[in-house]
Amino acid sequence: MEICNEKNDKPEGMLILRTMSMPANANPNGDVFGGWLMSQLDAGGAMMAYELTRGKVVTVAVDEIVFRNPVHVGDVVCVYGRVVHIGTTSIKIQLELWRKRNTESRTRRVKVTGCGITYVAVDDNGVKRTLPHDLRENREQIILNGYDSIYAEKEKDD
Ligand SMILES: CC(C)(COP(=O)(O)OP(=O)(O)OC[C@H]1O[C@@H](n2cnc3c(N)ncnc32)[C@H](O)[C@@H]1OP(=O)(O)O)[C@@H](O)C(=O)NCCC(=O)NCCS
């Protein structure tokens, strides 16, 4: 049975990563290994954090992860993310991982898991650095409306 928690009808945030689970990602039961799914969440969040902080980041903390539904080998795995906190050197991204059977329609997705991950911006020596000024200045708007609300327009002009 597929379990639906909270308001699990549609993903929240922007699509950051889309990939297919392969036999090498399976656990001994034949389903996809939870550790691989966790690494997809971290990779997705890191991509978003690199882009936003315009430099290197490291993962400092991961909130609780609960797996609600299994992923099968061959399923399409989609990671969605949205910024929920912008601090002085850190940024927190709320991530969701959804699965889609390869044979089903694009919108027939099931939520598998999700968590918040905090990244710290670092310099080339791994020392924390202050987040870019515009990111801190626009923190409310980015958290409320997504970062595209600010950067999509800017990138068009660049
Ligand atoms: C992350 C790291 C650079 C932090 O360095 P530090 O000088 O100790 O920094 P601080 O303790 O002042 O924390 C820096 C930021 O992280 C946040 N932070 C620290 N611990 C946290 C936690 N458990 N949960 C959430 N945020 C946390 C702080 O609130 C601070 O945010 P802010 O500046 O936006 O207020 C350092 O601990 C480190 O290199 N850790 C290893 C990272 C790593 O290897 N990750 C795995 C591979 S990417």
In short:
With 158 residues, this protein is of the alpha+beta class. It is built from 4 helices and 5 strands, in the order βαββββααα.
Features:
158 residues; Thiol Ester Dehydrase, Chain A; five-stranded antiparallel sheet; 4 helices; 5 strands; disordered N terminus; binds coenzyme A
Biggest sheet architecture: 5 strands, antiparallel
Bound molecules: coenzyme A
* CATH-level-2 architecture: Roll
> Which runs of at least 5 residues are low in confidence (pLDDT < 50)?
1-6
CATH topology: Thiol Ester Dehydrase, Chain A
Number of domains: 1
The total beta strand count reads 5
Helical fraction equals 25-40%
> Given the C-alpha coordinates, what overall shape results?
globular
Order of helices and strands: EHEEEEHHH
Relevant CATH superfamily: Hotdog Thioesterase
Radius of gyration: 17 Å
The secondary-structure class comes to alpha+beta
The side-by-side strand order for the widest beta sheet comes to 1-3-4-5-2
Indicate the proportion of strand residues: 25-35%
First-residue to last-residue Cα separation:
49 Å
What does this protein structure show overall?
The chain is α+β, with helices and mostly antiparallel strands and 158 residues long. The protein has a single domain (14-157), classed as Hotdog Thioesterase (Thiol Ester Dehydrase, Chain A, Roll), CATH 3.10.129. The protein contains four helices and five strands; from the N terminus they run E-H-E-E-E-E-H-H-H. Strand 3 (76-86) and strand 4 form a beta hairpin. The radius of gyration is 17 Å and the shape is globular. The relative contact order is 0.20. The model is unreliable at 1-6 (pLDDT under 50). It binds coenzyme A. Coenzyme A binds at residues 58-61, 87-90, 118, 120, 122, 126, 128.
